[in-house]
């Protein structure tokens, strides 16, 4: 190991040498993706993952790299809790596909234990009626769960007001919050005011307005949201995400970045270390994949995920299985493309 790695800072060459690029096929199209590529690193503290979405550029990707380096070269810290409540995540599927998605979170005996369901809405090419029908079907199949919707900023202000009124009714009074209904930070604040003026009592959560903003605390300072969604890789690692939640002073929902079980461990670590965890986490996303790099994927059971710890009691990503890595590995052009992304993110690095 080099001197730099001993100070938790791998050299670029060391990173590239440990990098394994994998591609995981997805069971259901999600966020426009049918598969997900990720780079796995193994370092002195364990395994880490670098998987910014393909369209992301530096400097954004450098946060993802810092997160991977933290996991593999510094470690994920000690947990305050050993298991976490997680929500079911329902992609923008037609109502007749909802039960197939929910089945991955439990059977008739255990599905009741799932506290919340997050439903994707405002998918390009779909209508508000499609969203309302999906929400109504989830509410019917999950009669006690809290409901959240995520529009990924796709609605205009007036569309959001109309949509949230209708979706709120379809959710039978169980709509816990709407995640990033409109794009940006100021528009979130304007929407909160418009909802209040119209007597629509829906809480607003900021996701992209936190993870893609130059200043992740601006949402909180402007009072633009009731709560924040926090994802470890885009926020530069567990330690930085912990500080952001503390400084924001808003309730936080920890979610995944659509990771393999290795990458998911970083989100699990944040949720396991936060002093308060008021909402079920969006960390049940391994269910969206057909395969994983570890022999026992981090899948929720009865609405909960176990926090993986090593023999020192520290949170540690599960160790990939060599056969799985070999089967899922991508080489050639895709590998070179990822190596170039790593180089670019590394040279933009702003962390010590
Ligand atoms: O929060 C969840 O239930 C699952 C995670 C999830 O929805 C997302 C993960 C990664 C990228 C996103 O488009 C999406 C989100 O916007 O929250
Ligand atoms: Mg979101």
Automatic annotation (TrEMBL):
Cofactor(s) in the UniProt record: a divalent metal cation
Cited CDD domains: OSBS
SUPFAM superfamilies found in the cross-reference section: Enolase C-terminal domain-like (SSF51604)
Domain of life: Bacteria
HAMAP family xrefs: MenC_1
Family membership: Belongs to the mandelate racemase/muconate lactonizing enzyme family. MenC type 1 subfamily.
Protein name: o-succinylbenzoate synthase
Source species of the chain: Nesterenkonia flava
